[in-house]
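Shipment paperwork, digital attachment
Item: protein structure file
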Amino acid sequence: MALLPMAANADTVEIDGIYYNLIKKVELNYAEVTSNPNDQTGDYYSGNIVIPESVSYDGNDYGVTSIGGSAFNHCTSLTSITIPNSVTSIGRSAFLDCPSLTSITIPNSLTSIGESVFWGCTSLTSITIPNSVTNIGGGAFYGCTSLTSITIPNSVTSIGSGVFSHCTSLTSITIPNSVTSIGTSAFYDCTSLTNITIPNSVTSIGDNAFQGCSSLTTITIPNSVTSIGESAFWGCIILSSITIPNSVTNIRRNTFYGCTSLTSITIPNSVTKIGRKAFYGCTNITSITFTKSVSGIEEFAFGNIPELSDVFCYGKYVPIINTKAFEGSFIEYATLHVPAAYIDIYKVTDPWKNFMNIVVLEGDETPTTPKCEKPTIRYENGQLNFACATEGAEFVSEIADTDIKKYNEASIQLSVTYVISVYATKSGYENSDVATATLCWIDQQPQAGGTANDMSQVSARAVMISSNGGSLTIDGADDGTPIAAYATTGHQAGSAVSTNGRAVIATTLQPGSIAIVKIGQKSVKVIVK
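Attachment content:
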Protein backbone atom coordinates (compact mmCIF):
# COMPACT_ATOMS: atom_id res chain seq x y z
CA MET A 1 0.00 0.00 0.00
CA ALA A 2 2.89 2.35 0.74
CA LEU A 3 4.12 2.05 -2.89
CA LEU A 4 0.84 3.07 -4.52
CA PRO A 5 1.64 6.81 -4.81
CA MET A 6 4.68 5.96 -7.03
CA ALA A 7 2.62 4.06 -9.62
CA ALA A 8 2.56 5.55 -13.16
CA ASN A 9 -0.54 6.10 -15.28
CA ALA A 10 -0.16 6.36 -19.07
CA ASP A 11 -2.69 7.77 -21.55
CA THR A 12 -2.29 8.13 -25.33
CA VAL A 13 -3.48 11.52 -26.55
CA GLU A 14 -3.11 13.71 -29.66
CA ILE A 15 -1.75 17.24 -29.22
CA ASP A 16 -1.22 19.49 -32.25
CA GLY A 17 -1.04 16.55 -34.62
CA ILE A 18 1.47 14.48 -32.60
CA TYR A 19 0.53 11.51 -30.44
CA TYR A 20 1.99 11.03 -26.96
CA ASN A 21 1.96 8.53 -24.18
CA LEU A 22 1.48 10.75 -21.12
CA ILE A 23 3.01 9.29 -17.99
CA LYS A 24 1.95 10.92 -14.76
CA LYS A 25 3.92 10.30 -11.58
CA VAL A 26 3.85 11.95 -8.20
CA GLU A 27 7.33 13.37 -8.67
CA LEU A 28 7.35 13.91 -12.46
CA ASN A 29 5.13 14.08 -15.55
CA TYR A 30 6.67 13.19 -18.88
CA ALA A 31 5.60 12.42 -22.42
CA GLU A 32 6.76 9.86 -24.98
CA VAL A 33 6.09 10.46 -28.68
CA THR A 34 4.17 7.50 -30.09
CA SER A 35 2.19 6.35 -33.12
CA ASN A 36 -1.48 6.93 -33.87
CA PRO A 37 -3.18 3.97 -32.16
CA ASN A 38 -6.19 4.25 -34.45
CA ASP A 39 -4.40 4.34 -37.82
CA GLN A 40 -2.48 1.36 -39.17
CA THR A 41 -1.79 2.79 -42.66
CA GLY A 42 1.63 4.11 -41.65
CA ASP A 43 1.12 7.62 -43.06
CA TYR A 44 -0.32 9.39 -40.04
CA TYR A 45 2.83 11.55 -39.88
CA SER A 46 3.91 13.36 -43.06
CA GLY A 47 5.92 16.36 -44.22
CA ASN A 48 8.01 18.28 -41.68
CA ILE A 49 7.53 17.40 -38.00
CA VAL A 50 8.80 19.56 -35.12
CA ILE A 51 8.55 17.88 -31.72
CA PRO A 52 8.19 20.36 -28.81
CA GLU A 53 10.19 20.14 -25.57
CA SER A 54 7.00 19.99 -23.50
CA VAL A 55 3.24 19.70 -23.93
CA SER A 56 0.24 20.63 -21.83
CA TYR A 57 -2.86 18.51 -21.43
CA ASP A 58 -5.83 18.75 -19.10
CA GLY A 59 -4.11 21.36 -16.95
CA ASN A 60 -0.82 19.43 -16.57
CA ASP A 61 2.60 20.00 -18.15
CA TYR A 62 4.65 17.09 -19.52
CA GLY A 63 8.30 17.13 -20.58
CA VAL A 64 8.89 15.29 -23.87
CA THR A 65 11.74 12.92 -22.97
CA SER A 66 11.61 10.08 -25.48
CA ILE A 67 10.46 8.86 -28.88
CA GLY A 68 8.86 5.48 -28.43
CA GLY A 69 9.48 2.31 -30.36
CA SER A 70 7.93 2.31 -33.87
CA ALA A 71 6.56 5.83 -33.30
CA PHE A 72 7.11 6.85 -36.97
CA ASN A 73 7.31 3.33 -38.38
CA HIS A 74 6.38 3.17 -42.12
CA CYS A 75 5.54 6.89 -42.37
CA THR A 76 6.36 6.97 -46.06
CA SER A 77 5.55 10.68 -46.51
CA LEU A 78 7.63 11.95 -43.58
CA THR A 79 10.38 14.22 -44.98
CA SER A 80 12.12 15.80 -41.98
CA ILE A 81 11.94 15.86 -38.20
CA THR A 82 13.37 18.07 -35.47
CA ILE A 83 13.92 16.47 -32.06
CA PRO A 84 14.16 18.79 -29.02
CA ASN A 85 16.93 18.84 -26.39
CA SER A 86 14.59 17.30 -23.84
CA VAL A 87 14.66 13.90 -25.59
CA THR A 88 17.21 11.41 -24.21
CA SER A 89 16.30 8.22 -26.06
CA ILE A 90 14.89 7.03 -29.38
CA GLY A 91 13.22 3.63 -29.19
CA ARG A 92 13.53 0.57 -31.37
CA SER A 93 12.39 0.95 -35.01
CA ALA A 94 11.22 4.52 -34.34
CA PHE A 95 11.79 5.63 -37.96
CA LEU A 96 11.93 2.23 -39.65
CA ASP A 97 11.08 2.37 -43.35
CA CYS A 98 10.60 6.11 -43.74
CA PRO A 99 11.82 6.27 -47.37
CA SER A 100 11.16 10.03 -47.82
CA LEU A 101 13.02 11.14 -44.68
CA THR A 102 15.93 13.30 -45.88
CA SER A 103 17.03 15.09 -42.72
CA ILE A 104 16.81 14.75 -38.97
CA THR A 105 18.17 16.87 -36.13
CA ILE A 106 19.41 14.84 -33.16
CA PRO A 107 19.95 16.87 -29.95
CA ASN A 108 22.90 16.75 -27.57
CA SER A 109 20.59 15.41 -24.87
CA LEU A 110 20.26 12.04 -26.63
CA THR A 111 22.10 9.17 -24.91
CA SER A 112 20.73 6.14 -26.75
CA ILE A 113 19.73 5.23 -30.32
CA GLY A 114 17.68 2.04 -30.27
CA GLU A 115 17.79 -0.97 -32.57
CA SER A 116 16.72 -0.50 -36.20
CA VAL A 117 15.83 3.17 -35.57
CA PHE A 118 16.57 4.37 -39.13
CA TRP A 119 16.31 0.98 -40.86
CA GLY A 120 15.42 1.50 -44.53
CA CYS A 121 15.49 5.31 -44.52
CA THR A 122 16.70 5.26 -48.12
CA SER A 123 16.69 9.06 -48.65
CA LEU A 124 18.73 9.95 -45.56
CA THR A 125 22.04 11.33 -46.87
CA SER A 126 23.82 12.41 -43.70
CA ILE A 127 23.36 12.45 -39.97
CA THR A 128 25.32 13.85 -37.03
CA ILE A 129 25.44 11.74 -33.89
CA PRO A 130 26.06 13.99 -30.86
CA ASN A 131 28.75 13.30 -28.24
CA SER A 132 26.08 12.49 -25.68
CA VAL A 133 25.23 9.18 -27.40
CA THR A 134 26.84 6.15 -25.75
CA ASN A 135 24.90 3.36 -27.42
CA ILE A 136 23.86 2.71 -31.04
CA GLY A 137 21.58 -0.29 -31.32
CA GLY A 138 21.93 -3.10 -33.84
CA GLY A 139 20.68 -2.33 -37.36
CA ALA A 140 20.28 1.37 -36.52
CA PHE A 141 21.17 2.53 -40.06
CA TYR A 142 20.54 -0.75 -41.90
CA GLY A 143 19.74 -0.15 -45.58
CA CYS A 144 20.23 3.63 -45.54
CA THR A 145 21.34 3.44 -49.15
CA SER A 146 21.84 7.22 -49.63
CA LEU A 147 23.99 7.73 -46.52
CA THR A 148 27.46 8.77 -47.74
CA SER A 149 29.36 9.54 -44.55
CA ILE A 150 28.93 9.51 -40.81
CA THR A 151 31.06 10.40 -37.80
CA ILE A 152 30.78 8.31 -34.67
CA PRO A 153 31.50 10.37 -31.52
CA ASN A 154 34.03 9.45 -28.83
CA SER A 155 31.22 8.67 -26.41
CA VAL A 156 30.29 5.47 -28.31
CA THR A 157 32.02 2.30 -27.08
CA SER A 158 30.66 -0.30 -29.48
CA ILE A 159 29.23 -0.59 -32.99
CA GLY A 160 26.36 -3.06 -32.83
CA SER A 161 25.32 -5.84 -35.18
CA GLY A 162 24.33 -4.69 -38.65
CA VAL A 163 24.45 -1.00 -37.74
CA PHE A 164 25.57 0.08 -41.23
CA SER A 165 24.61 -3.05 -43.18
CA HIS A 166 23.65 -2.37 -46.82
CA CYS A 167 24.63 1.32 -46.64
CA THR A 168 25.73 1.03 -50.25
CA SER A 169 26.66 4.73 -50.69
CA LEU A 170 28.78 4.96 -47.54
CA THR A 171 32.30 5.88 -48.70
CA SER A 172 34.01 6.72 -45.43
CA ILE A 173 33.52 6.48 -41.70
CA THR A 174 35.49 7.60 -38.67
CA ILE A 175 35.67 5.13 -35.80
CA PRO A 176 36.83 6.79 -32.56
CA ASN A 177 39.30 5.38 -30.03
CA SER A 178 36.46 4.77 -27.59
CA VAL A 179 35.08 1.84 -29.62
CA THR A 180 36.08 -1.68 -28.38
CA SER A 181 33.84 -3.96 -30.44
CA ILE A 182 32.79 -3.97 -34.01
CA GLY A 183 29.67 -6.08 -34.16
CA THR A 184 28.45 -8.82 -36.48
CA SER A 185 27.72 -7.57 -40.04
CA ALA A 186 28.41 -3.98 -38.90
CA PHE A 187 29.47 -2.89 -42.43
CA TYR A 188 28.02 -5.80 -44.39
CA ASP A 189 27.57 -4.99 -48.11
CA CYS A 190 28.85 -1.40 -47.84
CA THR A 191 29.89 -1.63 -51.47
CA SER A 192 31.23 1.96 -51.75
CA LEU A 193 33.43 1.89 -48.64
CA THR A 194 37.00 2.32 -49.90
CA ASN A 195 39.14 2.38 -46.77
CA ILE A 196 38.77 2.32 -43.04
CA THR A 197 41.10 2.66 -40.06
CA ILE A 198 40.33 0.60 -37.01
CA PRO A 199 41.57 2.32 -33.83
CA ASN A 200 43.79 0.69 -31.22
CA SER A 201 40.89 0.51 -28.79
CA VAL A 202 39.14 -2.22 -30.82
CA THR A 203 39.68 -5.75 -29.53
CA SER A 204 37.08 -7.65 -31.57
CA ILE A 205 35.81 -7.64 -35.16
CA GLY A 206 32.53 -9.53 -35.45
CA ASP A 207 31.33 -12.12 -37.94
CA ASN A 208 30.62 -10.73 -41.46
CA ALA A 209 31.73 -7.27 -40.25
CA PHE A 210 33.03 -6.17 -43.68
CA GLN A 211 31.56 -8.90 -45.86
CA GLY A 212 30.76 -7.71 -49.38
CA CYS A 213 32.68 -4.42 -49.09
CA SER A 214 33.67 -4.78 -52.73
CA SER A 215 35.37 -1.34 -52.97
CA LEU A 216 37.53 -1.74 -49.84
CA THR A 217 41.15 -1.36 -50.91
CA THR A 218 43.02 -1.09 -47.62
CA ILE A 219 42.35 -1.73 -43.98
CA THR A 220 44.65 -1.56 -40.98
CA ILE A 221 43.99 -4.01 -38.18
CA PRO A 222 45.74 -2.86 -34.99
CA ASN A 223 47.59 -5.11 -32.56
CA SER A 224 44.81 -4.60 -30.03
CA VAL A 225 42.52 -6.92 -32.05
CA THR A 226 42.53 -10.46 -30.68
CA SER A 227 39.51 -11.84 -32.53
CA ILE A 228 38.42 -11.60 -36.19
CA GLY A 229 35.02 -13.18 -36.81
CA GLU A 230 33.86 -15.65 -39.45
CA SER A 231 33.48 -14.24 -42.99
CA ALA A 232 34.67 -10.85 -41.70
CA PHE A 233 36.16 -9.87 -45.10
CA TRP A 234 34.32 -12.30 -47.39
CA GLY A 235 34.12 -10.94 -50.93
CA CYS A 236 36.36 -7.87 -50.45
CA ILE A 237 37.51 -8.34 -54.03
CA ILE A 238 39.71 -5.21 -54.28
CA LEU A 239 41.48 -5.66 -50.94
CA SER A 240 45.07 -6.03 -52.12
CA SER A 241 46.92 -6.44 -48.85
CA ILE A 242 46.19 -7.25 -45.24
CA THR A 243 48.40 -7.43 -42.17
CA ILE A 244 47.16 -9.85 -39.56
CA PRO A 245 48.41 -8.59 -36.18
CA ASN A 246 50.38 -10.72 -33.76
CA SER A 247 47.55 -10.48 -31.26
CA VAL A 248 45.22 -12.72 -33.34
CA THR A 249 45.27 -16.42 -32.39
CA ASN A 250 42.54 -17.85 -34.59
CA ILE A 251 41.65 -17.09 -38.22
CA ARG A 252 38.08 -18.34 -38.47
CA ARG A 253 36.22 -19.93 -41.35
CA ASN A 254 35.62 -17.89 -44.51
CA THR A 255 37.41 -14.85 -43.02
CA PHE A 256 39.04 -13.81 -46.33
CA TYR A 257 36.93 -15.95 -48.65
CA GLY A 258 37.05 -14.65 -52.24
CA CYS A 259 39.49 -11.77 -51.63
CA THR A 260 40.72 -12.09 -55.19
CA SER A 261 43.20 -9.16 -55.14
CA LEU A 262 45.37 -10.52 -52.34
CA THR A 263 48.75 -11.63 -53.71
CA SER A 264 50.51 -12.88 -50.59
CA ILE A 265 49.71 -13.65 -47.00
CA THR A 266 51.81 -14.02 -43.86
CA ILE A 267 50.42 -15.96 -40.90
CA PRO A 268 51.88 -14.40 -37.71
CA ASN A 269 53.44 -16.27 -34.79
CA SER A 270 50.34 -15.87 -32.64
CA VAL A 271 47.98 -17.83 -34.92
CA THR A 272 47.40 -21.44 -33.91
CA LYS A 273 44.33 -22.31 -35.98
CA ILE A 274 43.05 -21.46 -39.47
CA GLY A 275 39.41 -22.25 -40.16
CA ARG A 276 37.61 -23.88 -43.07
CA LYS A 277 37.85 -21.88 -46.31
CA ALA A 278 39.58 -19.00 -44.50
CA PHE A 279 41.39 -17.96 -47.72
CA TYR A 280 39.32 -19.98 -50.18
CA GLY A 281 39.13 -18.49 -53.67
CA CYS A 282 41.86 -15.88 -53.13
CA THR A 283 42.81 -16.63 -56.71
CA ASN A 284 45.80 -14.29 -57.04
CA ILE A 285 47.78 -15.33 -53.98
CA THR A 286 51.18 -16.58 -55.11
CA SER A 287 52.89 -17.11 -51.75
CA ILE A 288 51.94 -18.08 -48.21
CA THR A 289 54.27 -17.76 -45.23
CA PHE A 290 53.82 -19.57 -41.91
CA THR A 291 56.12 -17.92 -39.37
CA LYS A 292 55.32 -20.63 -36.82
CA SER A 293 53.95 -24.15 -36.90
CA VAL A 294 50.15 -23.92 -36.86
CA SER A 295 48.42 -26.63 -34.82
CA GLY A 296 45.29 -26.83 -36.94
CA ILE A 297 44.48 -25.93 -40.56
CA GLU A 298 41.01 -27.03 -41.62
CA GLU A 299 39.81 -28.30 -45.00
CA PHE A 300 39.86 -25.90 -47.95
CA ALA A 301 41.55 -23.21 -45.79
CA PHE A 302 43.76 -22.38 -48.79
CA GLY A 303 41.59 -24.02 -51.42
CA ASN A 304 41.08 -22.82 -55.00
CA ILE A 305 44.22 -20.66 -55.18
CA PRO A 306 45.43 -21.61 -58.67
CA GLU A 307 48.31 -19.08 -58.78
CA LEU A 308 49.98 -20.44 -55.63
CA SER A 309 53.65 -21.02 -56.37
CA ASP A 310 55.47 -20.92 -53.01
CA VAL A 311 54.69 -21.89 -49.43
CA PHE A 312 57.19 -21.09 -46.67
CA CYS A 313 57.03 -22.96 -43.34
CA TYR A 314 59.41 -21.64 -40.68
CA GLY A 315 58.02 -23.59 -37.72
CA LYS A 316 59.97 -26.12 -35.71
CA TYR A 317 57.60 -28.96 -36.48
CA VAL A 318 55.31 -29.99 -39.34
CA PRO A 319 51.98 -28.11 -39.09
CA ILE A 320 48.90 -30.23 -38.41
CA ILE A 321 46.77 -29.79 -41.49
CA ASN A 322 43.66 -31.28 -43.10
CA THR A 323 44.54 -33.27 -46.21
CA LYS A 324 42.18 -31.07 -48.26
CA ALA A 325 43.58 -27.76 -46.97
CA PHE A 326 45.05 -26.91 -50.40
CA GLU A 327 42.31 -28.56 -52.45
CA GLY A 328 42.16 -27.01 -55.93
CA SER A 329 45.34 -24.96 -55.52
CA PHE A 330 47.54 -27.14 -57.75
CA ILE A 331 50.25 -27.66 -55.13
CA GLU A 332 51.60 -30.38 -57.40
CA TYR A 333 53.11 -27.50 -59.39
CA ALA A 334 54.23 -25.41 -56.37
CA THR A 335 57.35 -25.30 -54.19
CA LEU A 336 57.38 -25.91 -50.43
CA HIS A 337 60.20 -24.28 -48.41
CA VAL A 338 60.89 -25.94 -45.01
CA PRO A 339 63.62 -26.19 -42.35
CA ALA A 340 66.37 -28.66 -43.21
CA ALA A 341 65.78 -30.69 -40.02
CA TYR A 342 62.19 -31.51 -41.03
CA ILE A 343 62.38 -31.88 -44.81
CA ASP A 344 62.20 -35.68 -44.70
CA ILE A 345 59.04 -35.59 -42.55
CA TYR A 346 57.35 -33.15 -44.93
CA LYS A 347 58.13 -35.50 -47.82
CA VAL A 348 56.06 -38.32 -46.30
CA THR A 349 53.22 -36.32 -44.70
CA ASP A 350 49.91 -35.47 -46.36
CA PRO A 351 49.23 -33.09 -47.97
CA TRP A 352 52.75 -31.58 -47.82
CA LYS A 353 54.25 -34.49 -49.73
CA ASN A 354 52.13 -33.54 -52.76
CA PHE A 355 54.10 -30.36 -53.51
CA MET A 356 56.12 -30.62 -56.71
CA ASN A 357 59.29 -29.37 -55.02
CA ILE A 358 60.19 -29.54 -51.32
CA VAL A 359 63.35 -27.54 -50.65
CA VAL A 360 65.34 -26.26 -47.69
CA LEU A 361 64.62 -22.70 -46.59
CA GLU A 362 67.34 -20.23 -47.44
CA GLY A 363 69.00 -19.29 -44.19
CA ASP A 364 66.60 -21.67 -42.37
CA GLU A 365 65.61 -18.83 -40.02
CA THR A 366 62.16 -17.69 -39.00
CA PRO A 367 61.46 -14.16 -40.23
CA THR A 368 61.31 -11.86 -37.24
CA THR A 369 58.65 -9.27 -36.61
CA PRO A 370 60.03 -5.98 -35.31
CA LYS A 371 58.86 -4.83 -31.90
CA CYS A 372 57.89 -1.33 -30.90
CA GLU A 373 60.24 0.36 -28.45
CA LYS A 374 58.97 0.77 -24.91
CA PRO A 375 57.41 4.24 -24.58
CA THR A 376 58.25 6.95 -22.08
CA ILE A 377 55.78 8.87 -19.91
CA ARG A 378 56.04 12.54 -18.99
CA TYR A 379 53.71 14.97 -17.25
CA GLU A 380 53.99 18.57 -18.43
CA ASN A 381 51.72 21.61 -18.25
CA GLY A 382 48.73 19.68 -17.00
CA GLN A 383 48.84 16.82 -19.50
CA LEU A 384 50.45 13.43 -19.95
CA ASN A 385 52.78 12.98 -22.93
CA PHE A 386 53.87 9.65 -24.38
CA ALA A 387 56.85 9.19 -26.70
CA CYS A 388 58.36 6.21 -28.52
CA ALA A 389 61.53 5.71 -30.56
CA THR A 390 59.53 3.66 -33.10
CA GLU A 391 58.47 6.16 -35.75
CA GLY A 392 54.75 6.24 -36.42
CA ALA A 393 53.83 4.26 -33.31
CA GLU A 394 50.52 4.89 -31.59
CA PHE A 395 49.77 4.57 -27.90
CA VAL A 396 47.24 2.58 -25.90
CA SER A 397 47.00 3.73 -22.31
CA GLU A 398 45.04 3.07 -19.14
CA ILE A 399 44.76 5.43 -16.19
CA ALA A 400 43.33 4.41 -12.82
CA ASP A 401 42.83 6.76 -9.89
CA THR A 402 42.91 5.71 -6.26
CA ASP A 403 40.67 8.43 -4.83
CA ILE A 404 37.57 7.46 -2.90
CA LYS A 405 34.35 7.40 -4.93
CA LYS A 406 31.83 7.41 -2.04
CA TYR A 407 32.16 8.28 1.60
CA ASN A 408 29.84 8.94 4.52
CA GLU A 409 31.96 11.25 6.64
CA ALA A 410 32.40 15.01 6.66
CA SER A 411 36.14 14.72 5.93
CA ILE A 412 37.72 12.75 3.10
CA GLN A 413 41.45 12.21 2.70
CA LEU A 414 42.24 12.50 -1.03
CA SER A 415 45.35 10.76 -2.31
CA VAL A 416 45.15 12.41 -5.76
CA THR A 417 47.14 9.54 -7.22
CA TYR A 418 46.94 8.05 -10.71
CA VAL A 419 48.44 4.79 -11.93
CA ILE A 420 49.34 5.06 -15.63
CA SER A 421 50.20 2.25 -18.03
CA VAL A 422 50.86 2.57 -21.75
CA TYR A 423 52.23 0.52 -24.62
CA ALA A 424 53.16 1.45 -28.18
CA THR A 425 51.66 -0.25 -31.22
CA LYS A 426 52.16 -0.10 -34.97
CA SER A 427 50.86 -2.18 -37.87
CA GLY A 428 53.39 -4.86 -38.78
CA TYR A 429 55.13 -4.58 -35.40
CA GLU A 430 54.73 -6.42 -32.14
CA ASN A 431 53.36 -4.34 -29.29
CA SER A 432 55.97 -2.80 -27.04
CA ASP A 433 56.53 -3.69 -23.43
CA VAL A 434 54.21 -1.83 -21.08
CA ALA A 435 55.54 1.31 -19.42
CA THR A 436 54.05 2.29 -16.07
CA ALA A 437 54.25 5.32 -13.81
CA THR A 438 52.49 6.77 -10.78
CA LEU A 439 51.43 10.43 -10.83
CA CYS A 440 50.63 12.20 -7.57
CA TRP A 441 50.43 15.69 -6.09
CA ILE A 442 52.34 16.80 -3.02
CA ASP A 443 52.71 19.85 -0.79
CA GLN A 444 49.03 20.73 -0.92
CA GLN A 445 48.37 23.87 1.08
CA PRO A 446 45.31 26.20 0.99
CA GLN A 447 45.98 29.35 -1.00
CA ALA A 448 45.34 32.76 0.45
CA GLY A 449 42.36 34.46 -1.11
CA GLY A 450 39.34 32.39 -0.15
CA THR A 451 37.50 29.73 -2.09
CA ALA A 452 36.42 28.96 -5.62
CA ASN A 453 32.97 27.42 -6.14
CA ASP A 454 32.75 26.71 -2.39
CA MET A 455 36.02 24.77 -2.49
CA SER A 456 39.23 25.99 -0.92
CA GLN A 457 41.90 26.53 -3.53
CA VAL A 458 45.11 24.59 -3.05
CA SER A 459 48.54 24.68 -4.60
CA ALA A 460 50.03 21.34 -5.51
CA ARG A 461 53.09 20.03 -7.27
CA ALA A 462 52.85 17.07 -9.64
CA VAL A 463 55.34 14.26 -9.07
CA MET A 464 55.89 11.29 -11.40
CA ILE A 465 57.28 8.01 -10.03
CA SER A 466 58.56 5.30 -12.37
CA SER A 467 60.62 2.17 -11.85
CA ASN A 468 63.04 0.05 -13.89
CA GLY A 469 65.10 -2.89 -12.70
CA GLY A 470 64.47 -2.12 -9.04
CA SER A 471 65.45 1.55 -9.33
CA LEU A 472 62.87 4.24 -8.62
CA THR A 473 62.95 7.57 -10.44
CA ILE A 474 61.04 10.49 -8.93
CA ASP A 475 60.53 13.54 -11.16
CA GLY A 476 59.03 16.87 -10.15
CA ALA A 477 59.79 17.25 -6.45
CA ASP A 478 61.30 20.52 -5.21
CA ASP A 479 65.10 20.54 -5.01
CA GLY A 480 66.26 19.48 -1.57
CA THR A 481 63.15 17.37 -0.85
CA PRO A 482 64.12 14.19 1.06
CA ILE A 483 62.73 11.04 -0.58
CA ALA A 484 62.89 7.51 0.79
CA ALA A 485 61.64 4.11 -0.36
CA TYR A 486 60.41 1.42 2.06
CA ALA A 487 59.40 -2.20 1.75
CA THR A 488 55.96 -3.15 3.06
CA THR A 489 57.74 -4.56 6.15
CA GLY A 490 58.80 -1.03 7.04
CA HIS A 491 62.46 -1.63 6.15
CA GLN A 492 64.03 1.32 4.33
CA ALA A 493 65.12 0.19 0.85
CA GLY A 494 66.93 3.39 -0.14
CA SER A 495 66.83 7.16 -0.06
CA ALA A 496 67.86 10.24 -2.03
CA VAL A 497 67.44 14.01 -2.16
CA SER A 498 65.80 15.66 -5.16
CA THR A 499 68.31 17.55 -7.31
CA ASN A 500 67.32 19.48 -10.45
CA GLY A 501 63.81 18.11 -10.04
CA ARG A 502 64.85 14.43 -10.00
CA ALA A 503 65.82 11.75 -7.53
CA VAL A 504 66.94 8.19 -8.32
CA ILE A 505 66.80 5.52 -5.63
CA ALA A 506 68.55 2.19 -6.27
CA THR A 507 66.77 -0.54 -4.28
CA THR A 508 67.06 -4.29 -3.85
CA LEU A 509 63.30 -4.73 -4.07
CA GLN A 510 62.16 -7.53 -6.37
CA PRO A 511 60.08 -6.88 -9.53
CA GLY A 512 56.40 -7.08 -8.72
CA SER A 513 56.85 -6.07 -5.09
CA ILE A 514 55.30 -2.96 -3.58
CA ALA A 515 57.39 -0.01 -2.51
CA ILE A 516 56.19 2.83 -0.31
CA VAL A 517 57.78 6.06 -1.50
CA LYS A 518 57.80 8.90 1.00
CA ILE A 519 58.21 12.35 -0.59
CA GLY A 520 58.42 14.94 2.14
CA GLN A 521 55.33 14.19 4.21
CA LYS A 522 53.42 12.29 1.50
CA SER A 523 53.55 8.50 1.09
CA VAL A 524 52.67 6.74 -2.18
CA LYS A 525 52.50 3.01 -2.97
CA VAL A 526 54.07 1.92 -6.26
CA ILE A 527 54.80 -1.44 -7.90
CA VAL A 528 58.44 -2.12 -8.63
CA LYS A 529 59.13 -3.14 -12.25
